[in-house]
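WP5 quarterly update. Target: Glutathione S-transferase. Source organism: Brucella anthropi. Length: 156 aa.
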Amino acid sequence: VPALRHGNDIVTEVAAICAYLATTFPESGLAPHPDERADFYRWLFFTSGPVEAALSNHALGYEVPADKQGMVGYGNYDTVVNTLENAVSRHPYITGSRFNAADVYVGSHIGWGLRFGTLPAKPAFKAYWDRLKDRPAMKRANELDDAAAAAAASKH
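Structure tokens (predicted):
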């Protein structure tokens, strides 16, 4: 379970951790500006709910029957994919022209989906992922992850 302890606070769920860190540390520049706030929360929670559920169910071979699609929070896989594709096609980043914490979360799902085939390799997804993966901070984060994985592997 992803969890963050910060002082006496414990935050779980990656989307919540992203939002918490962005607003707790505004100097990071990852919190939404007032004109980005609606899209920030919309796409952060769309990804943590409908996107995650639809992609997981699809990867497991489960498709919601047409007569039951109103009972789930996402309808069907194709609707979710098309909605997400439209969202990342509108601007360079999910809320506009500026990278923020919502891109950290949305981007991680798109990167994972492209890598493991849970999302189709649509040009809009590839272009969005390319913008994110080439950021210096992403490269540094990957280097830290690789070093931590290597250190953990050397202990076994």
